């Protein structure tokens, strides 16, 4: 532990993120300077929130049926008639491109006898139930019923498909089961301003990997909302990550953490060299030559930024204006309740969902959104990892797969620990777990 | 593979049999990489470290093989200085026999504000041709224009992304109209090296379609010329395996095939089509300089493979391009001129 650290200090010893920004080789944009004033009250949360079916049922009724949620990417349904299915708990939705500029979402159930209207993504001119062939137009109006004479009691107008509210931002399609909900823009608040420099609508889905996890969806996502776990879970990263010097902010219904890379952890006793910091990122073996050598007179941070600029140069025209910070650091946003788009050019988006109605299971997805040049490449299909497959079976995720393995190794054991616990509450760090506290604050307000 | 735990100081060695040896505070242990540590001598964080080391099939296995350059003369010969002021150059003895015949001709070069493209544009200008060039960066393009005009020819420039097909076609047409015709079209733009779907897309759009679209737009002018010539800048990456499958390599191969087709199809119209395939070319700000700084082993391996003992310069590639583009090469069409200092090892029948 770094010397001089005492219980009750408001922040970790070491260079703060704002101080680090002052050393950048490029002018620092406003968005990286913004800090929130607000604090949130929650420091303890009852364990049953993660383990009980009753709590899960409340979440379905009061959260999932009322909140704006990321359902799919616009690029998944580029042409009129394209549709995809979004599911959460036992809810299922068909999302359709009804016109070139119109996306609609319907509960995935036939109004006749309830069969799912749509089993999987695809393209067709209308929505037709495979069971008896009842058919609707893409705008939800009733098109055809076989043996129409047999349904004198079915009035055309009353048999429109019910609709969910739909909104889009950044190339993401959001749905809300509550058709009367306030518009998506009110939910997102200031978020779009944060992403002005990094337009996510100009990205394509380069990789999309999904894995079922043996834990509650909140247990899963909370492992990706702070850098406090790095010291114990990812010790190999310490030479090159300012974990305890991360900055955490909350605004409205979203929050942000910023963790600097290529700066040493205050947990380390000694001072790593610039080369040590770079090596930690790419796991240099002690008996191998480094794959990349930090040039004389350059910091690892500047060098990583230079590498990223060279890599992004072909697809990001403004690459020379991007700060070292935007090319080296991690900016991980959380939009309530379960959507985690990363800022700058780190490419990551996470989504966490309950898996069916089992509070002990969840679905984690990692999506990489990459910039492109020229025509939009087609989005990567979802790569489902089986129970016996770890993240390294998804090489499209690059060097992060082993980091994800370290993260997910904890998750099933957290869930088992929560069931075994005799204490009643989990507790959170005042600063480093700010994002989680903010999430629970919003969750409590939503479920009350 | 050996790793040191940054906090506990424990040293982990991944053995060839897939087990991991751990040394810590005078004690040693051996584990299966995903197995649990039971002796309790190490910190609780260590199982996570073992997880990081991964199974034998998952861990990186050692450094790439060291370059094995053939022993030979230590100092490679530097590229020749062909300037008028070069030592030994006697202006009175300059030979007039190799007049390229480009004086007063009109040429169009894509992506010509730096590197090979700029060298081509400059040598075309030095041979007396008016030059139209495009690039993405306005600043570099403007300074290229000034350098060309300083050589006493007309220069027409436009800022654009070659991936934008409509903009590229419009540029070539406007180049022909502004310069009063086109005799030479050089497709030089490239999406560069890269991996994954977006690189496939970029190399297809820029390397292949950039050439195909540029030729289509240039054809009305080239057909009216007495010495119409097209040169595609491909790469030796299309010819021999470079160590990593990349879309760049495949798309550069497509370019050679398309150039060959065009050579046959356009010959009756008096238009010649050739490719130039450079090997590793080093220049300030170029990708090989970046590789030299950041991936020394790869740089050294490539250097060791260059038979002449050094990488090429943009000027050396430009001379090959300008020759093929000029009426001096009137009998040559459908060729792929490899320009690599012996980097590739195949026999070029």
Structure description:
- The complex is a heterodimer of chains A (448) and B (349).
- By secondary structure, chain A is an alpha+beta fold.
- Chain A folds into two domains: 17-53 and 190-447, Naphthalene 1,2-dioxygenase Alpha Subunit, Chain A, domain 1 (Alpha-Beta Complex); 69-180, Rieske Iron-sulfur Protein, CATH 2.102.10.
- Chain A is built from 13 helices and 20 strands.
- Chain A has helices at residues 17-21, 30-33, 48-51, 53-64, 184-188, 191-194, 217-222, 230-233, 274-282, 300-312, 324-328, 400-420, 434-447, and strands spanning 44-46, 69-73, 82-88, 91-99, 102-107, 122-123, 127-128, 135-136, 142-144, 165-169, 172-176, 203-213, 247-251, 254-259, 330-335, 339-341, 348-355, 358-371, 383-385, 425-427.
- Chain A has a five-stranded mixed sheet.
- Chain A is globular, with a radius of gyration of 24 Å.
- Chain B is α/β, with parallel strands linked by helices and 349 residues long.
- In chain B, the strands form two sheets. Chain B has a seven-stranded parallel sheet with strand order 7-6-5-8-9-10-11, sandwiched between helices. In chain B, strands 1-2-3-4 form a four-stranded antiparallel sheet, with no helix packed on it.
- Chain B is elongated.
- Chain B starts with a strand and ends in a 10-residue tail after the last strand.
- Chains A and B meet through helix 8, helix 10 and helix 12 of A and strand 1, helix 1, helix 5 and helix 7 of B.
């Amino acid at each position: 532990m770094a010397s001089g650290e005492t219980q009750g200090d408001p922040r970790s010893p070491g260079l703060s993120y704002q101080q680090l920004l002052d050393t950048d080789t490029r002018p620092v944009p406003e968005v990286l300077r913004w800090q929130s004033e607000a604090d949130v009250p929650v420091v303890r949360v009852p364990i049953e929130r993660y383990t009980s079916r009753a709590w899960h049922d409340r979440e379905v009724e009061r959260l999932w049926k009322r909140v704006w949620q990321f359902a799919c990417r616009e690029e998944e349904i580029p042409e009129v008639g394209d549709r995809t299915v979004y599911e959460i708990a036992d809810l299922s939705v068909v999302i359709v491109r009804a016109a070139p500029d119109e996306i609609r979402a319907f509960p995935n159930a036939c109004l006749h006898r309830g069969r799912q209207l749509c089993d999987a993504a695809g393209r067709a001119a209308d929505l037709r139930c495979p069971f008896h062939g009842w058919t609707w137009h893409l705008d939800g109006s009733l098109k055809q019923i076989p043996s129409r004479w047999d349904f004198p009691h079915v009035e055309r107008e009353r048999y429109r498909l019910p609709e969910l509210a739909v909104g889009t931002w950044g190339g993401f399609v959001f749905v809300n089961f509550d058709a009367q909900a306030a518009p998506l823009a009110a939910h997102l608040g200031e978020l779009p301003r944060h992403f002005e420099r990094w337009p996510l609508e100009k990205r394509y889905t380069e990789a999309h990997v999904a894995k079922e996890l043996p834990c509650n969806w909140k247990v899963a996502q909370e492992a990706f909302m702070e850098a406090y776990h790095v010291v114990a879970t990812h010790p190999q990263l310490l030479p090159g990550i300012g974990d305890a010097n991360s900055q955490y902010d909350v605004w409205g219904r979203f929050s942000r953490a910023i963790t600097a890379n290529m700066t040493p952890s205050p947990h380390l006793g000694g001072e790593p060299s610039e080369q040590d910091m770079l090596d930690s990122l790419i796991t240099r073996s002690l008996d191998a030559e480094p794959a990349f050598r930090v040039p004389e007179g350059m910091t690892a941070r500047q060098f990583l930024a230079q590498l990223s600029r060279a890599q992004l140069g072909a697809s990001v025209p403004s690459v020379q204006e991007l700060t070292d910070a935007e090319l080296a650091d991690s900016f991980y946003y959380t939009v309530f309740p379960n959507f985690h788009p990363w800022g700058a050019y780190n490419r990551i988006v996470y989504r966490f969902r309950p898996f069916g109605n089992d509070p002990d299971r969840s679905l984690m997805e990692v999506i990489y959104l990459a910039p492109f040049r020229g025509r939009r490449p087609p989005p990567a299909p979802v790569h489902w990892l089986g129970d016996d497959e770890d993240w390294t079976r998804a090489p499209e995720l690059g060097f992060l797969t082993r980091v994800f393995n370290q993260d997910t190794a904890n998750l099933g054991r957290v869930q088992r620990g929560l069931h075994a616990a005799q204490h009643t509450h989990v507790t959170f760090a005042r600063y480093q777990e700010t994002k989680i506290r903010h999430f629970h604050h919003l969750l409590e307000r939503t479920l009350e | 593979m050996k790793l040191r735990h940054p906090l506990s100081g424990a040293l982990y060695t991944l053995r060839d049999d897939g087990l991991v040896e751990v040394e810590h505070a005078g004690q040693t242990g051996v584990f299966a990489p995903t197995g649990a540590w039971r002796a309790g001598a190490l910190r609780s964080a260590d199982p996570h470290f073992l997880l990081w080391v991964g199974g034998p099939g998952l861990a990186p296995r050692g450094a790439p093989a060291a370059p094995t350059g053939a022993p030979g003369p230590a100092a490679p010969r530097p590229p020749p200085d062909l300037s008028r002021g070069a030592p030994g150059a006697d202006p009175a003895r300059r030979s007039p026999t190799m007049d390229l015949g480009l004086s007063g001709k009109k040429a169009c070069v894509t992506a010509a504000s730096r590197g090979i493209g700029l060298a081509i544009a400059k040598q075309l200008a030095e041979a007396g041709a008016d030059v139209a060039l495009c690039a993405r960066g306005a600043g570099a393009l403007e300074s290229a224009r000034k350098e060309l005009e300083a050589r006493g020819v007309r220069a027409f420039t436009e800022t654009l992304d070659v991936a934008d097909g409509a903009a590229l076609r419009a540029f070539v047409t406007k180049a022909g109209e502004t310069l009063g015709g086109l005799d030479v079209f050089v497709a030089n733009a490239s999406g560069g090296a890269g991996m994954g779907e977006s690189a496939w897309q970029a190399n297809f759009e820029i390397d292949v379609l950039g050439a195909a679209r540029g030729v289509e737009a240039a054809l009305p002018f080239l057909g009216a010329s007495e010495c119409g010539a097209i040169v595609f800048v491909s790469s030796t990456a299309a010819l021999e395996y470079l160590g990593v499958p990349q879309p760049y390599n495949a798309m550069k191969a497509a370019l050679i095939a398309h150039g060959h087709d065009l050579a046959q199809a356009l010959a009756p119209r008096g238009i010649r089509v050739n490719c130039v395939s450079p090997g590793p070319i080093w220049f300030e700000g170029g990708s090989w300089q970046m590789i030299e700084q950041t991936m020394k082993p790869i740089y050294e391996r490539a250097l060791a493979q260059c038979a002449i003992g050094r990488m090429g310069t943009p000027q050396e590639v430009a001379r090959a391009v300008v020759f093929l583009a000029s009426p001096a090469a009137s009998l040559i069409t459908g060729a792929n001129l490899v320009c690599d200092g012996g980097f590739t090892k195949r026999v070029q029948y």
